[in-house]
Amino acid sequence: MTTQEVADKLVNYMRTGQIMEAQAELYADDIVCIEPEGAMVPHITKGKAAVNEKGRQFASMIEERHGSSCSDPVVGGRHFSISMSLDATMKGMGRMLLDEICVYEVKDGKIVFEQFFY
Questions:
Q1: How far apart are CA 95 and CA 19, in angstroms?
Q2: Could you read off the pLDDT of 23-69 as tens digits, one per residue?
Q3: Which pLDDT value is given to residue 38?
Q4: Percentage of the chain with pLDDT > 90?
Q5: Can you list the domains of the chain with their CATH numbers?
Q6: d(CA 13, CA 7)
Q7: In the prediction, which pLDDT does 42 show?
């Protein structure tokens, strides 16, 4: 798959709430994920299984989802970015609007790197 095809598939999965399916199909086994320091999840996560677990941990912290959005991807070479937002009530933290920019790198048709800015 090209970077554009991977980006379009990821956005489609995100918009339909199929994040785990996106990771299963589109993420490389050795993916690296970087979150901002001090985030609710680990700063650096390596490997598909660890990234999946991080996602499950984050999902378990959501008490109620009120809405979400995902922009169309902007693609340049092997990289693409999207803007995402989540309006949710987090357990013990109340309702929050989480806005972020997500940057991805694609190699051999798989996402090998992701970094989130929020």
A1: 21
A2: 999 999 999 999 999 887 889 999 999 999 998 898 899 999 999 99
A3: 85
A4: 89
A5: 3-117 (3.10.450.50)
A6: 10
A7: 85
Output the DSSP codes for the chain.
--HHHHHHHHHHHHHTT-HHHHHHHHEEEEEEEE--TT-SS-SEEESHHHHHHHHHHHHHTEEEEEEEEEPPPEEETTEEEEEEEEEEEETTTEEEEEEEEEEEEEETTEEEEEEEE-
Q: Please, are residues 88 and 111 in contact by the beta-carbon 8 Å criterion? A: no
Report the C-alpha gap between 81 and 7 in whole angstroms: 8
Choose among 61, 65, 81: nearest CA to 73: 81
Looking at the predicted structure, is the pLDDT value of residue 77 above 90?
A: yes
Q: For tokens 């357990």, name the residue.
A: 91
pTM of the model: 0.92
The length of the chain is 118
